[in-house]
């Protein structure tokens, strides 16, 4: 029994989450670079899947995300590439990345709204690659369409 409890407590970890935010979305769409954050991208530069910025007091575990020296010009190119492939901006979600206590430690911009954010010792975080939301209405910022008869 003790072994099972130890295993479960080791697997539980500390997880953060994405908190949808129009303000964060607008920040990316205005091409504002946060000087106290490090930026990362996944997917090809011509068709990025997500842009992630993490406060400098945290370290993103290397491997899944490509670090970039972000400038307003590069951010504009990445946001435009993401928008161009979808055809419209509302499909792209801006979100704050919060730690287990609910404090925002980063920002996210992607048409994908699913990821896992695990917090490790020494302010290391592991962010999985983005995935599609099972709810198709997420593209409309969570608003369900109005049926007209």
Q: Could you name the key traits of this structure?
A:
about 150 residues; globular; 6-stranded antiparallel beta sheet; disordered N terminus; disordered C terminus; 10 strands; 4-stranded mixed beta sheet; alpha+beta
Please outline the helices and strands:
Layout: H1 2-12, E1 14-15, E2 17-20, H2 22-29, E3 37-42, E4 50-55, E5 59-60, E6 66-68, H3 72-86, E7 93-98, E8 104-110, E9 117-120, E10 124-127
Parallel strand pairs: 5-10
Antiparallel strand pairs: 1-9, 2-7, 3-4, 3-6, 4-8, 7-8, 9-10
What is the compact description of this entry?
This protein has 149 residues and is α+β, with helices and mostly antiparallel strands.
* Count of DSSP-assigned helices: 3
* Shape category: globular
Average the pLDDT over all residues and give the rounded result: 82
What is the structural class? alpha+beta
- Spell out the helices and strands N to C: HEEHEEEEHEEEE
Strand content: 25-35%
Helix content: 10-25%
Identify the strand order in the major beta sheet.
Answer: 2-7-8-4-3-6
């Amino acid at each position: 029994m003790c072994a099972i409890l130890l295993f479960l407590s080791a697997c539980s970890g500390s997880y953060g989450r994405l908190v949808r935010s129009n303000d964060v979305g607008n920040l990316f769409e205005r091409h504002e670079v946060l000087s106290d954050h490090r930026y990362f991208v996944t997917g090809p530069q011509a068709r990025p899947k997500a842009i992630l910025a993490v406060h400098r007091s945290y370290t993103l575990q290397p491997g899944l995300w490509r670090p970039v020296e972000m400038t307003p010009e590069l951010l504009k190119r990445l946001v435009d590439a993401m928008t161009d492939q979808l055809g419209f901006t509302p499909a792209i979600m801006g979100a704050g990345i919060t730690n287990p206590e609910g404090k925002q430690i980063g920002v996210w911009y992607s048409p994908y709204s699913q990821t896992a954010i695990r917090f490790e010792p020494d302010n290391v975080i592991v962010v999985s690659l983005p995935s599609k939301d099972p709810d198709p209405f997420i593209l409309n910022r969570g608003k369900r369409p109005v049926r007209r008869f």
